[in-house]
Amino acid sequence: MDKRLLARLALSEVDSLARAVLELHGFSREQALAVARTMVCGQRDECASHGVYRLLVCIATLKAGKVDPRAEPQVHDHAPGVVRVDAAGGFSQLAFDRGVPLLRRKAVDNGVAALVINRCVHFSALWVEIETLTDLGLVTLACNPSHAWVAPAGGRGPVFGTNPIAFGWPRPGKDPFVFDMATSAIARGDIELHRRAGKPVPLGWGVSADGEPTTSAEAVLQGAMLTFGGHKGSALAAMIELLAGPLIGDLTSAQSLAHDAGAGASPFHGELILAFDPRRFLGERYEHYLHSAETLFDSIEQQGARLPSARRYEARRRSLAQGVEINDELLDELNALLHR
Ligand code: NDP
Ligand code: PYC
Fold first, then answer.
1. Which ligand is nearest to the CA of 227?
2. Domains, the chain, with CATH or none
3. 143: part of which helix (H) or strand (E)?
4. Ligand 1 atom at minimum distance from 190 CA
5. 6 C-alpha to center of ligand 2: Å?
């Protein structure tokens, strides 16, 4: 059992802490706001691997000289259905925020549109972006590579990133249907958290550097992670490398790791976000087919199965009412970042 002490903080306190650390270390106000928001959302929804723990990673990435804290993303109207945002070496969040208005216009005009983010440093959970777009009534799909940490099915050496893929479906009057998953058995952030807590990982998350199954978090971090679902996760991971790498003129996970050159910073690559406007697809049939979707969700829940993100939404309601817990050790490390 984890015996560490937990401190309870209001979400506003977590946000102030994250922004203060980022601004103190030289992030522009806009960058700090956008980056802090993702972490606070992660902590709020009890997604510890992408919560405020990531502040440590952000500052380590900055100190390694691998992110521009004052980057000004540039939005380009690339094609009738494509918005391209050059993140200019900054974190992905502000680039995403800057691209959303044009993406929305294009999706509404065309039915479908793509937002391509190039040259971003990336660490966030994708559902934060997905929910921004489902809130606008758009069906959304997003994916990106990371660093080459994951072995292909049948292999034993890292080729793929942890390559998340996320999908969102707006449900008027209800929380959206959202799934967001790494194509590795688990996000690398979770293995890092196991290592920090001195806890073993389940078999199946990864192999040691000599390709042997292991429950040691450290050995997996030094060796290779495994894909989820064997060859199926492996194929999806390869697809994400292609869609959010060469297709958008950006780096694969192997190239991102080479760019890192041992610095241990967050990955540097691109991201692809697709947005579909169901009203443009369906016209007068919109209400009818939205109802079909609700029938699908009902038939899942009526069996006692839960929808993806249901855990998150419950955590969110709890956190909004009661604040969030952060273990003392992490809180001390975060507070230490307030003294440069
Ligand atoms: P999980 O395996 O914990 O969850 C994946 C998805 O499955 C979630 O939507 C989750 O919903 C859902 N889910 C889990 N259990 C069930 C269940 N029993 N029934 C129905 N749905 C379920 O997450 P991962 O470890 O794969 O990924 C964690 C996060 O890491 C993601 O947000 C991802 O974006 C992020 N990530 C980011 C990367 C990056 O490069 N930026 C790289 C890799 C990961 P719920 O949350 O409600 O449990
Ligand atoms: O947890 O795998 C991960 C991850 C990679 C980049 C950001 N998160």
1. 1
2. 1-63+309-340 (1.10.1530.10), 77-184+227-308 (3.30.1370.60)
3. strand 139-143
4. 25
5. 24
- List pLDDT tens digits, range 118-140: 999 999 999 999 999 999 999 99
Q: Is the CB of 311 under 6 A from ligand 1?
A: yes
First to last CA, the chain: 34
Q: What is the pLDDT of residue 98?
A: 98
pTM beyond 0.90: the answer is yes
Q: Which residue is associated with the tokens 């060796």? A: 223
Question: What ligand has the least distance to the C-alpha of 306?
Answer: 1
* DSSP reduced 3-state for 166: strand
Q: Which ligand is nearest to the CA of 185?
A: 1
Tell me which residue of 2, 6, 82 sits closest to 325, measured CA to CA: 6
- Does residue 56 sit in helix, strand or coil? helix
In three-state secondary structure terms, 225 is: strand
pLDDT in tens, 189-238: 999 999 999 999 999 999 999 999 999 999 999 999 999 999 999 999 99
Q: For the residues of 75-109, what is the DSSP string, one character each?
A: EEEEETTEEEEE-TTSBHHHHHHHHHHHHHHHHHH
Kindly tell me the burial class for residue 254, based on how many C-beta atoms sit within 10 Å of its own C-beta (0-12, 13-18, 19 or more): middle
* Confidence at residue 2, expressed as pLDDT on a 0 to 100 scale: 53
Ligand 2 centroid from CA 88, angstroms: 20
Question: Measured in angstroms, how far is the CA atom of residue 54 from the centroid of ligand 2?
Answer: 10
* Residue to substitute in 181, 272, 313, 317 for testing ligand 1 pocket (most ligand atoms within 8 angstroms of CB): 181
Q: Is the CB of 43 under 6 A from ligand 2?
A: no
Backbone angles phi, psi at 23, to 5 degrees: -70, -40
CA of 181 relative to ligand 1 center, distance in Å: 4
